[in-house]
Design brief:
By secondary structure, the chain is mainly alpha-helical. The protein has four helices and two strands, in the order ββαααα. The protein has one domain: Arc Repressor Mutant, subunit A (Orthogonal Bundle), CATH 1.10.10. Helix content is 47%, strand content 5%. A two-stranded antiparallel sheet has the order 1-2. It comes from Spirosoma soli.
């Protein structure tokens, strides 16, 4: 599965920040939840609209962004 397909950019949603599946869930918010110590199951329990694959997609997006290798489909 290409997890990055779950990350969308839309200027009409969250000011164009990378979000999960077109929802108003910015990648940075999910990373903040993980950084606060929440586990994936805890996040999903609190926010059932999210899926495990969404959270993994956020981690993959962060890794690729930090490496400077943003795929053209996301960078557009």
């Amino acid at each position: 599965m290409n997890y990055l397909e779950r990350i969308t950019l839309d200027t009409q949603i969250c000011h164009g920040k990378p979000c999960i599946r077109g929802m108003r869930w910015p990648v940075e918010v999910v990373l903040d939840l993980l950084g606060s110590g929440m586990t994936i199951p805890e996040i999903i329990e609190d926010h059932p609209e999210l899926e495990r694959e969404d959270i993994i997609a956020c981690l993959n997006y962060a890794k690729i962004t930090l490496s400077g290798q943003i795929p053209p489909a996301i960078a557009a």
